[in-house]
Amino acid sequence: MKKRKVPHTFVIVFAIIVVAAMLTWIIPPGKYVQEVVPNPETGSMDTVMTFHYADHLPESVGEFHAEPQTWQVFSAFYKGFVKQGNIIVFILIIGGAFWIMNKSKAIDMGIMSFLKFTKRLECSPLMRKIGVNNIVIVLIMLLFSLFGSVFGMSEETIAFTLIIIPLSVSMGYDSIVGLCMVYVAAHIGFSGAMLNPFTIGIAQGIADIPLFTGIGYRAVCWAVLTVVGIVFVLLYAKKVKRNPQSSIMYDDDAYWRKSAEVKEEELERYTPRKAWFVFAFLTVVLIIFSVLYPQTTLKIGNSEATLPLLPIGTAVFALLGVLTLRKTVHYFVLTLVFATVYFLVVGVLGFDWYIMEIASLFLVLGIASGLSVDKSASDIAKLFLEGMGDILSAAVIVGLAGGIVIVLQDGGIIDTILYGLSKSMSNMGKIASAEIMYGIQTLINIVIPSGSAKAAITMPIMAPFSDLIGISRQSTVVAFQFGDGFTNMITPTSGVLMAALGVARIPWDKWVRFIWKFILVLVVIGALLLIPTVTMELAGF
Predict the structure, then answer these.
(1) What are 115-160's pLDDT values in tens digits?
(2) What is the pLDDT of residues 47-70, one digit of tens each?
(3) Which of 41, 178, 205, 534 is most buried by a 10 A CB count?
(4) Is a pLDDT exceeding 80 seen at residue 172?
């Protein structure tokens, strides 16, 4: 009997677009409208969100274009590319830059040195019992979970995936473990965010709650979710380590295993003269920026800290640059990688960097890596194009997935779906109402994975409703952040997820087979963590 093959990820996503188009023929279009109405209790005028079907919209709304989708399932591909253009360009630039860096063999040299170091650590009975690899997984996941919790790291994980997956495979795991160490960890932190400005900040602002209050209980939520995530990944990693062929990605990971098959004798240690010129040029540039920006103000929630981060980074780069260039250019390229990560964090927290600035930073990394290993400008350009071609499928799937939301938006049914779900909260108890809010946010997130967009749509409805039923608005925010976070790791409408899977070369259907049970566990834990926000007196609630 011939084994039935699972359709290609492109086919699955396009089928979802077709289903979305069919829904536009079944669900009537509608829109939430912001209106100013008198408050009979206070006598003031309040701004509220009211829902209207398309044929009963107020004249103030103007034209509202919504129609059942037919041939638009094909134009959605184009519109999806336009909508997700920033992420698509980011992926292509990252792919090209990392391809140049990978050709320097610096990552191979770094992984070999790291594995040698871990083997020496395993000589210790205590470290052998704990497992050095387990410590590596825990530390990396803690770091990225903290990044997700504090400043909402999401798109940035795409770049780090290309670094961590080769390490994961070289350690005897698979690409899924590598993706979990970065992407899943960051999104667990995103879900249990303490200070994430893109979710907590916006949601609390709309709900008229002092920004970032209630951080104590959210820190507890973050710790619980992070521990659960780490335990889940460690158990799966142990299973794959024991039997690599048990991984559903074993055959697909041949690409990563082949790229990791570099013998130490193939890595010639050398330092071209051009690498010293690259080092000198970058050091001078960093010194100039250190003079222009001697102090950097980091903004974390409502707290600020002013530190000389650029001068510190410049000094460390200069010192490491000299030390690594005296050994081999490979270590210098790794120094460039670490410097890139450092200045990325400083840029995001201190200068409000986003995708454009981060992509530019990695482009500099790629060019500097190529020049350091004595590549000509033409060679670097060719390698950059090769890298873009190698990662093109990841960019295409992001555009295709973006078409799902486009079809729902053009059909005008997103707000109607939200309205139908919100009606289910009537005549419920406090705990049940809070859980229904959480369920609604979770379902909506499958369609609208953008946390800031979803906060703008749902919080003006949920916050006043929580007042009516006697639930703290902080509880509503917690329901929002849990609902916004967990399904980001499985929904095909998330451009970041589809990009990360594309970069990791993990088909979406295989990812779903792996992650769905874990998502279910997270959803249940989220429901349990929501109960104390209704039943207990918590600080800030």
Answers:
(1) 777 777 777 777 777 788 888 999 999 999 998 898 788 888 888 8
(2) 777 888 888 887 777 778 889 999
(3) 178
(4) yes
C-alpha to C-alpha distance for 436 and 434, rounded to whole angstroms: 5
Least confident window among 94-103, 405-414, 443-452: 443-452
CA dihedral 431, 436, 438, 439 (to 10 degrees): 140
- 8 Å CB contact between 213 and 204: yes
User: What is the enclosing helix (H) or strand (E) of 446?
Assistant: helix 430-447
Structure tokens at 495: 């451009």
Using alpha carbons, select from 101, 88, 117 the residue that is nearest to residue 166: 101
Residue 377 CA to chain centroid, in angstroms? 33
Are 161 and 496 spatial neighbours (Cβ–Cβ below 8 Å)?
no
At 339 the pLDDT is: 93
Question: What backbone phi and psi angles, to 5 degrees, belong to 53?
Answer: -70, 160
Separation of alpha carbons 19 and 25, rounded Å: 10
Across-strand partners of 30? 53
Upper half-sphere CA count for residue 346 (Cβ side, 13 Å) = 22
Helices (H), 152-299: 157-170, 175-179, 185-191, 202-206, 215-242, 254-260, 273-292
Round the average pLDDT of the chain to a whole number and report it.
86
- Measure the CA angle with vertex 79, ends 74 and 82; round to 5°: 145
- Greatest alpha-carbon pair distance for the chain in Å reads 81
Indicate whether 447 pLDDT > 60.
Answer: yes
**52's tokens:** 């209207």
Burial (0-12, 13-18, 19+ Cβ within 10 Å), 342: middle
Please give the C-alpha separations between residue 2 and each of 5, 14, 516, in angstroms, as whole numbers. Answer: 9, 25, 27
DSSP 3-state assignment of 522?
Answer: helix
Residue 445's nearest CA partner among 490, 507, 476, 395 is 490
The SS3 call for residue 297 is: strand
* Structure tokens belonging to residue 496: 């970041």
Instruction: Determine how many CB atoms are found less than 10 A away from the CB of residue 533.
Output: 23
Q: How confident is the model at residue 1 (pLDDT cuts 50, 70, 90)?
A: very low
Question: Is residue 404 within 8 Å of 13, Cβ to Cβ?
Answer: yes
Tokens of 270: 């050398």
Alpha helix stretches (DSSP H) within 448-507: 451-469, 473-485, 495-504
Q: Which two tokens mark 28?
A: 């009537």
Nearest Cα residue to 224 out of 525, 537, 541: 525
**Surface-to-core class of residue 116, CB atoms within 10 Å of its CB (0-12 exposed, 13-18 middle, 19+ buried):** exposed
Smallest CA-to-CA distance from 502 within 77, 108, 104, 94 is with 94
Cα 84 to Cα 458: distance, rounded to the nearest angstrom = 22
* Torsion sign, CA atoms 120, 126, 130, 136: negative
Selected residue with higher pLDDT from 115 and 104: 104
| Residue type for position 473 | R
Please determine, for residue 461, whether its predicted confidence score (pLDDT) is greater than 70: yes
The CA distance from 435 to 484, in Å, is 14
DSSP 198: I
Sign of CA dihedral 363, 367, 368, 370: positive
